[in-house]
Amino acid sequence: MKITIPYGSRPGEKIVSEGFFACPFCFYKRPYVRKKVVKVNYLGLINIPSSKALMEYIHCGGCLNTFSVETIEPENQLKIKISEQPLPPNSLFDEWQFAYKNLKCEEILENNPENNMLSSTLMNTIVDQMKKAGVSIKLKMFDETKVHMYNILSLSNKWFECKSRYNNNKYFKSNPVADEKYKQFSAMAHYMLSQLP
Fold first, then answer.
1. Average predicted confidence (pLDDT) for the chain
2. Where are the beta strands (DSSP E) in the chain?
3. How wide is the angle at C-alpha 136 spanned by C-alphas 16 and 183, nearest 5°?
4. What is the pLDDT of residues 48-76, one digit of tens each?
5. Sheet arrangement for strand 66-67
6. Residues 112 and 124 sit within 8 Å (Cβ to Cβ)
7. Which conformational region is residue 141 in: left (phi greater than 0), alpha (psi within -120 to 50 degrees), or beta?
């Protein structure tokens, strides 16, 4: 019996440093991670990373874009004009609370018989994303808030995509109550995204 041991090389990433910088895309002070791509030689389960970098780059924690290492050089940082527009005020959390109450999120999660037209895994997931958005707004973690809002938009679009695809299917009945609720969640997510930096 012949045993073969896999060997070869593949790219790998290593974190070199972390910090804050003036992001040329966000125009705000953002956290960044400086990473280098290295060649990793492997023999079976043994990985041997090379010390020589194939390339290095800066990864912005806000917009998630990548930039050249020169971006964090002091002379280049001074050229980037930081936005004078302040980050969203505390009233953003008040707007989230109003939307959460107005969209009757708690009632949807209670599986009230009156809301059986809305009780579905998809709707419950949207409400869960709404709750998580509230926490991230409260903690002023606006990039995470954006992710939750994009998830709400994506899930709402999924509903209408399925509706158009399976509209003639006897198992996918017309549900105007749910249609209206998905539209409301989609509009709310669009509005909240417009208020975030």
1. 80
2. 7-22, 29-43, 46-60, 66-67
3. 120
4. 766 677 889 999 887 778 899 999 998 88
5. 7-22, 29-43, 46-60, 66-67
6. no
7. beta
**CA 75/CA 96 separation, integer angstroms:** 40
Domain boundaries, the chain: 7-79, 91-195
Q: DSSP 3-state assignment of 9?
A: strand
Half-sphere exposure of 17 (CA within 13 A, CB side): 6
Assign 34 a pLDDT band (cuts: 50, 70, 90): very high
Lookup: tokens for 153: 């938009």
66-102: buried (b, 16+ CB within 10 Å) or exposed (e) per residue? ebebebbeeebeeeeeeeeeeebeeebeebbeebbee
* 3 state DSSP class of 27: coil
Q: What DSSP letter does each residue of 126-152 carry, written as one string?
A: HHHHHHHHHHHHHTT-HHHHHHHHHHH
Q: Could you give the CA distance from residue 104 to residue 178 in angstroms, rounded to a whole number?
A: 13
Q: Are 114 and 152 in contact (CB under 8 A)?
A: no
What is the C-alpha to C-alpha distance for residues 98 and 191, in angstroms, rounded to an integer?
Answer: 13
